[in-house]
Write a structure and sequence with these properties.
Elements (H helix, E strand, L loop, with lengths): L1 E4 L3 H17 L6 H14 L4 H12 L6 H14 L1 H5 L6 E10 L5 H8 L4 E6 L1 H6 L8 H13 L6 E10 L5 E2 L1 H9 L10 E8 L2 E6 L5 H17 L3 E6 L3 E3 L1 H4 L4 H11 L9 H17 L4 E5 L8 H14 L2 E6 L12 H6 L5 E4 L3 H12 L6
Parallel strand pairs: 2-3, 7-8, 7-10, 10-11, 11-12
Antiparallel strand pairs: 1-2, 4-6, 5-6, 8-9
C-alpha cells in the first residue's frame, strides 16, 4: 500500500509521452498499448513517489529483461531532470491505492485483492510472451526453453487447407446441381423441383513437411525449433518431420506423443547425426527420391529450418531444391541467422537454394515462429 500525490492529468500526459519518447530514442520498443497503460498508471498513482513511478514504468513499458539496465539509466536521467518541474505542479489530493502486478495467467488475483481491501486496485499485467517474444533462442536458458514450449503449444499451427475432389452441399446456386438431393426435395412437393440443391468442392488440411537441420552449426537453435515442430505434430494431423544433417531421419512418430519432453528425448535418440556434420543437398536428394516424389511433398507446404551451411556441392543443393519446388505447394525457408545485422545469404548452400524458396523468413525467436504459423495457415490455390 502506497500513499502518493497526483498531478493534473494534462501534465502527467505530457510527462508520460516525453518519457516514452526517451525510451524509444535509445532503442527500447514501446508499443502504443504499453504507453497507454503507463499513462493510466501514472494518472492513478501520481508522480510524486519515485518508487511507484519507477515500477509503473518497469511493469508496463519494459518487455525484454535485457532492456532493464537501459530503462534504469533513462529513468534516472529523465526523472532527475524533471524533479524541478514536478515540484511546481502542486498537490491536488492524496489517495491511497493498492498496486497489484500479475502475469497473464492470474486472472483472479486482482479481484481477490479488491475483496480484501476497500482501496482502489491498479492491476499491472505482464505477458510472458512479450518478455520472451523477441529474445534470441541462443540466449535462452533451460527454464526459458520450457516456458517457450508452453507458448508454442498455444500457437495455431493449423496449416492451410486445399481443395479436395470430394464434393459437399452448398447453399450457393453457382455450384454443380445435386440431382439426388433435388429429387428427394421434389418428392415432398408433389414432384415439382421447387428447391434445387447444389454441391461444391470440399477442402482438406494441406500436408506440412518440416525438414529440421540438426547439424553442429544449428545446435543452439535446433533445441528450440524442435519444440515448435513437436507442438505442430502433437496439435494437428497431416504433419511430417525429418531431420537433416549427414543423413535423413524421419522422426514423425517419435514427436507425436503428448508429453513434449518424452517426445523430444525419443526423437533425439533416433537421430544418430544430431550436432554432427552438414550435407543438406545430399539429405534433400534422399528425401526427394524416397519420400517427396512418392507423394509426401506433392502439394504440401515444405518448411526447411536451417542456417543454410552445407559442406556439399552447391550444384547438388540447387538441383534438389529445384525438384522439391516443382512438386510442393510452397517452400518456406526459416533461417535463424537472417535476423543478424547485415546478414546476407552468402553461404553456398543458402545461395544455391534461395531461387527455389517462396518465402525466406527469420527463425531466431518466438515472434518469428508466429510469422511462420501465420504463413502455414494461409489458404492458397491448389498445387
Amino acid at each position: 500500500m502506497t500513499s502518493v500525490d497526483t498531478a493534473p492529468t494534462t501534465s502527467i500526459e505530457r510527462i508520460a509521452v516525453a518519457f516514452v519518447a526517451a525510451l524509444r530514442q535509445v532503442g527500447i520498443d514501446v508499443p502504443v498499448g504499453s504507453a497507454l497503460r503507463y499513462h493510466e498508471a501514472l494518472s492513478t498513482i501520481g508522480v510524486n513517489s519515485r518508487t511507484s513511478v519507477y515500477w509503473a514504468g518497469r511493469a508496463t513499458l519494459v518487455h525484454d529483461p535485457e532492456a532493464i539496465g537501459i530503462y534504469d539509466y533513462v529513468f534516472a536521467a529523465f526523472w532527475e531532470a524533471k524533479a524541478v518541474v514536478l515540484d511546481t505542479i502542486g498537490v491536488i489530493d492524496e489517495q491511497e491505492v493498492m498496486l497489484a502486478v500479475e502475469d497473464e495467467d492470474a486472472d483472479d488475483d486482482a479481484e481477490e485483492l479488491g475483496e480484501e481491501t476497500d482501496l482502489p486496485v491498479i492491476t499491472l499485467r505482464y505477458s510472458r510472451h512479450e518478455l520472451l517474444g523477441g529474445k534470441d533462442f541462443s540466449d535462452y536458458d533451460d527454464a526459458e526453453l520450457d516456458e517457450a514450449q508452453r507458448l508454442m503449444q498455444r500457437m495455431a499451427v493449423v496449416g492451410g487447407r486445399r481443395p479436395s475432389r470430394r464434393r459437399v452441399p452448398t447453399r450457393h446456386t453457382g455450384g454443380r446441381p445435386d440431382l439426388a438431393r433435388t429429387v428427394r426435395r421434389a418428392l415432398r412437393s408433389g414432384g415439382e423441383p421447387i428447391e434445387r440443391r447444389f454441391t461444391t468442392h470440399g477442402d482438406r488440411l494441406r500436408r506440412v513437411v518440416f525438414l529440421l537441420d540438426v547439424s553442429g552449426s544449428m545446435e543452439t537453435y535446433a533445441r528450440a525449433l524442435a519444440r515448435f515442430v513437436q507442438a505442430a505434430v502433437a496439435g494437428r494431423r497431416r504433419v511430417e518431420v525429418f531431420t537433416l544433417g549427414t543423413r535423413l531421419t524421419r522422426v514423425t512418430r517419435e514427436l507425436s506423443g503428448r508429453n513434449p519432453d518424452r517426445a523430444l528425448t525419443q526423437a533425439t535418440d533416433a537421430v544418430q547425426d544430431w550436432s554432427g556434420g552438414t550435407r543438406l543437398g545430399e539429405s534433400l536428394r534422399v528425401f526427394n527420391d524416397e519420400w517427396g516424389q512418392r507423394g509426401m511433398a506433392r502439394g504440401a507446404t515444405v518448411v526447411l529450418l536451417s542456417d543454410g551451411w552445407d559442406r556439399g556441392a552447391p550444384e547438388v543443393m540447387a538441383e534438389q531444391m529445384g525438384r522439391l519446388h516443382r512438386i510442393a505447394h510452397k517452400v518456406i525457408w526459416v533461417n535463424p541467422l537472417k535476423a543478424s545485422p547485415g546478414y546476407e545469404p552468402l553461404a553456398q548452400g543458402m545461395a544455391a537454394a534461395l531461387p527455389y524458396v517462396d518465402r525466406f523468413i527469420e527463425g531466431h525467436c518466438l515472434d518469428s515462429l508466429e510469422v511462420l504459423a501465420e504463413l502455414l495457415a494461409e489458404k492458397g490455390a491448389p498445387a
